[in-house]
Amino acid sequence: MSDRWDEKAPLYGIIAEFDNPTDLVVAAERAYAAGYRKMDAYTPYPIEEVAHAIGHHRSLVPLLVLIAGVTGGVFAFVSQWWAAEIDYPLIIGGKPFNSWPMFIPITFEVTILFAALTAVVGMILLNGLPLPYHPVFNHKRFERATQDGFFLCIEAADPMFDRTHTMNFLKSLNPREVAEVES
Amino acid sequence: MADGQKSYLAPDLAASGSRYLIVAAAGAAGLAAGWFINHDQFFLSYLVGYVFWINMALGMLFLLMIQHLTGGAWGVLTRRVLESGARTLPALAVLFVPVIVGMHSLYEWTHADAVAADKILQHKAPYLNTTGFLTRAAVYFVVWGAVALLLAAWSRGQDLTGRPEFTHRMRTLSGPGVVMYGLTVTFMSTDWFMSLEPHWFSTMYPVLFVVGQGLAAFTLTIITVVWLSGRAPLAGVVTQKHLHDLGKLMLAFVLLWAYTNFSQFLITWSGNLREEVPWYLKRTQEGWLAVALILVIFHFALPFVLLLSRKVKQNARLLAGIAAVLLVMRAVDLFWFLRPAVPHGGGEGHHGLSLMTALSTVWIDLSALAAIGGLWMFLFMRGLSKRPLLPVNDPHFEEALAHGRH
Q1: Is B394 part of a structural domain of the chain?
Q2: Cβ–Cβ contacts within 10 Å for residue B164, how many?
Q3: Which of A28, B22, B165, B320 makes an SS bond possible with B226, Cβ 3.0 to 4.6 Å?
Q4: Cα distance from B266 to chain A (closest Cα, Å)?
């Protein structure tokens, strides 16, 4: 694999490693201010400010959960009403066919079921999971991201990306190390 | 931390609190007028006003113990507010005297002739009798007062010395305290309110009071915190994240209120039993259905939908506005609960008291709310003015203040 570091090897991006979260947050803010958008940060524990700094917007999950919850509630209520009032009317306990108070517990449960399942499945899918391969693992020190390394990776797909420029830019941000990541 | 303690004192709150004495005086004048016009109505209206404010104090005691047990930034931020509310319980024991005086007006089971003519009341007499009622009330007030004053005293000790044993004591008492709270509120709501209609019973009823108390306490706590956050010494201390947490907890109580109330309704409706159904008939006929629908919309649907949004929960003015609506709805809820119970002032008609008849004397209820509430708010504000507004020596103080501001 002598051609591994060849100039022509397909590049995923350039990664910078920082010793502490403060440097990472500053670096991410500077990179965002410089115009970079396609980048991601990797840290041993969640750091809200980094997500902010790299321009992470609020996810679609809450909206999907709301839609699913309303759908589940309407579906549950209408199907009970349709069964009891239209499809198979039976007198039960001397109550009217449309005994809506009886439909509420199931309506409530199905609302929660739809909303909860959508929250879990939607979160997984919108996270891009399942993902069997991610190029950032090609970086040899990347395992430190689960221990004590704070990484910022600017991806080659970013329109502003330039091999030398981006490399120099990241080097100017007080990193411990900067390296190219092949895809 | 000694000078930090000084900086969170707000002695000027006592002066703001004194203004509530004017409200109390106006309310007392209205109550006095009510007394001369209709004794029986006076006592029922007084009970409506009284339950609103003792629910507030008990709810704050409940939340205070919960936050000692569970921790969390919201608990550190609201501790003084909750303590100040819980410390009004001894005064509320004194304010219970008019209820004792009015027992004969309020409770059918205190009438020997009514009991003699009623098999069900005879069977309930071993529990529902004047001696038992008074003894139990004394026990409730001793338990509540003791827990509230001990927690406040230890919190004071923590403030002054920072010694960890005070923190441990507060946590240790709060565990059994919550259990005793659950038992006393269960018996209290049975004695004081459910027995207004002595034939009727519901095992969900005490839970409705616990939930109502928790919700009432959250509404006033949020309003107080938002109000304090705009002035010295708390200006700049309260973060969006603190408000968000309080809003989430209030949303949970709104849901719990709807859940428990609907559960009682569903069980009664599907059981369709002779002794249970009249409670709802009295509260859905003769105009009362309108009040029930107002409760469904403004006590549940509207706050529920609004509080789902993160932006609303993080907006101080909107959150306080929703809390204010819910606070008013707590009073409407109790009016709907208690007023149709005894048909004083209206004929003993088949369907009980009509809403219009009840509204013609609603000014006595409002006077009671103002009289007791004015006094309560005065004590509450005085309590807030005497101690630092934040527990600076709490082990989680710094952490709680940094919540949402890294």
Answers
A1: yes
A2: 11
A3: B320
A4: 6
Kindly report the backbone phi and psi dihedral angles of residue B110, in degrees, each rounded to the nearest multiple of 5, phi listed first: -85, -5
Optimal mutation site among A20, A67, A104, interface B, most CBs of chain B within 10 A = A104
B147, two tokens: 């827990």
Which residues 249-268 of B are in CB contact (within 8 Å) with A?
262, 265-266
- Determine, for residues A102 and B262 on separate chains, whether the beta-carbon distance falls below 8 Å: no
Nearest CB to B270; choose among A62, A66, A102: A102
pLDDT (tens digit, 0 to 9) for every residue of chain B, 406 residues total? Answer: 444 445 788 888 888 888 999 999 999 999 999 999 988 899 999 999 999 999 999 999 999 999 999 988 888 889 999 999 999 999 999 999 999 999 998 998 999 998 999 899 999 999 999 999 999 999 999 999 999 999 999 999 998 888 889 989 999 999 999 999 999 999 999 999 999 998 898 999 999 999 999 999 999 999 999 999 888 788 888 888 899 999 999 999 999 999 999 999 999 999 888 888 989 999 998 899 999 999 999 999 999 999 998 899 999 999 999 999 999 999 999 999 999 987 544 344 455 788 888 888 899 999 999 999 999 999 999 999 988 888 888 888 888 887 766 5
- Could you tell me the CA-to-CA distances from B264 to A152, B191, B271 in Å, in that order? 56, 19, 11
DSSP A83: I
Residue B222, in any domain of the structure: yes
Q: How many CB atoms lie within 10 A of CB A80?
A: 19
CA distance A74 to chain B (A): 16
Q: Does B274 touch chain A (CB under 8 A)?
A: no
Contact list in A for residue B273 (CB cut-off 8 A) is: none
Cis peptide before A89 (omega within 30 of 0): no
Q: For residue B168, what are the contacts with CB-CB under 8 A and spacing of at least 6?
A: none
Number of domains in chain B: 1
- Quote the CA–CA distance of B307 and B303 in Å, as a whole number: 6
Angle at B140 between CA B150 and CA B56, to 5 degrees: 75
Query: In terms of residue numbers, what domain contains B129?
Result: 7-401
Residue B406 placed within a domain? no
**Ordered strands of the A11-18 beta sheet:** A39-42, A150-155, A11-18, A177-182
Contact status of B96 with chain A (Cβ, < 8 Å) = no
Listed by number, the residues of chain A in 81-110 with a beta carbon closer than 8 Å to a beta carbon of chain B are 93-95, 101-102, 104-105
Q: Give the side-chain half-sphere CA count within 13 A for A45.
A: 3
Q: Are A38 and A158 in contact (CB under 8 A)?
A: yes
Q: Provide the sign of the torsion angle of the four alpha carbons B382, B386, B387, B388, taken in this order.
A: positive
What is the chain A residue with the closest CA to B263?
A: A105
Alpha-carbon distance B118 to B122, whole Å? Answer: 6
Residue B348, domain member (yes or no): yes
The DSSP output letter for A59 is: P
- For residue B106, what are the CA distances in angstroms to A103, B114, B192, B344? 38, 13, 9, 9
DSSP three-state, residue B200: coil
Rg (CA), chain A: 26
List the end-to-end C-alpha distance of chain B, in Å, as a whole number. 21
